[in-house]
Specification:
Blueprint lengths: L3 H7 L3 H12 L9 H27 L19 H7 L11 E5 L5 H16 L4 E4 H13 L5 H6 L4 E7 L6 H9 L18 E7 L2
Parallel strand pairs: 2-3
Antiparallel strand pairs: 1-4, 3-4
Helix pairs in contact: 1-2, 6-8
C-alpha cells in the first residue's frame, strides 16, 4: 500500500502534503474517493522526474553520437557479449576500477564505451562525462593558462565513470598528458606511459568512485 504522505514529502510537495494531512484528519471518507487520483498523479510525477533526469544526464555526458548495446553487432565482433553486459551495469564504478577497450580502427571501441555508459545512465542513474582525450588535454592546458587550474578536475570528481576516447590516435604534449592523469583522483596504473609507447588504440572508461 502506498504511503501518500511520505511520497509527497520525498517529492518536496509540501503544500500538497499539508493539505493531505488536513484531509486525512477528517476521516477516511474525505480521502477514499480521491486517493486513487493522488496515487496516479504521484506515479506520473515519479516517471516524469526519472525521464527528465535521464535526459539531463545524457546531455551532460556530451556523447558525440548516441550508441546502445542493441545497436552493436556482437556476431561480427570478438567482444565478449556477456562481459560487456556485465560492464553495462557500471558496477565496476563502485570500486573505482578501470575498463580499457583495445583494438584497431572500426572494431567498436567507442560504440561499446558509449553504450555501457548510456546503459548506466538509463538504468542506474550514473553520471558520466565523455571526452576525446585530445580535447580534454586542450581544456586542461587552457584552464592552466587562464589561471583556473583544478576546475575541470573538480567537475570530474562528481562523475561516476569518465570515458577517454581516442587515446593513441593523436599526439599531445607531455605537459598535457600529465595534466590528464593529474585530473583523475585515481590515475591508471601506468601514468608515465607516453603516446609513443601506446601501440594499440585504447579507450579508457575511468571509474572515479
Amino acid at each position: 500500500m502506498r504511503d501518500v504522505m511520505t511520497e509527497l514529502k520525498e517529492l518536496r510537495l509540501h503544500g500538497m502534503a499539508g493539505a493531505w494531512t488536513d484531509l486525512t484528519a477528517q476521516g477516511t471518507a474525505s480521502t477514499e474517493s480521491s486517493k486513487w487520483l493522488i496515487e496516479h498523479l504521484l506515479q506520473a510525477e515519479h516517471t516524469d522526474r526519472a525521464m527528465r533526469s535521464v535526459s539531463h544526464q545524457m546531455n551532460a555526458a556530451k556523447f558525440p553520437v548516441h550508441r546502445d548495446l542493441a545497436g552493436f553487432d556482437f556476431e561480427s565482433s570478438t567482444a565478449d557479449q556477456h562481459l560487456v553486459k556485465q560492464l553495462a551495469t557500471l558496477s565496476f564504478t563502485d570500486t573505482a576500477q578501470n575498463v580499457v577497450f583495445i583494438g584497431g580502427p572500426g572494431t567498436g571501441k567507442t560504440h561499446l564505451a558509449t553504450a555501457i555508459a548510456v546503459s548506466g545512465i538509463a538504468l542506474q542513474g550514473k553520471r558520466v562525462r565523455f571526452y576525446s582525450t585530445v580535447d580534454l588535454v586542450n581544456v586542461l592546458e587552457r584552464e592552466k593558462r587562464d589561471g583556473k587550474a583544478g576546475r575541470v578536475a573538480l567537475s570530474l570528481m562528481r562523475m561516476d565513470p569518465i570515458i577517454l576516447d581516442e587515446l593513441g590516435y593523436l599526439p599531445f604534449s607531455q605537459v598535457g598528458g600529465v595534466g590528464v592523469w593529474g585530473a583523475m583522483p585515481e590515475p591508471p596504473a601506468s601514468p608515465r606511459v607516453s603516446h609513443d609507447d601506446i601501440q594499440a588504440l585504447v579507450k579508457f572508461v575511468l571509474a572515479l568512485r
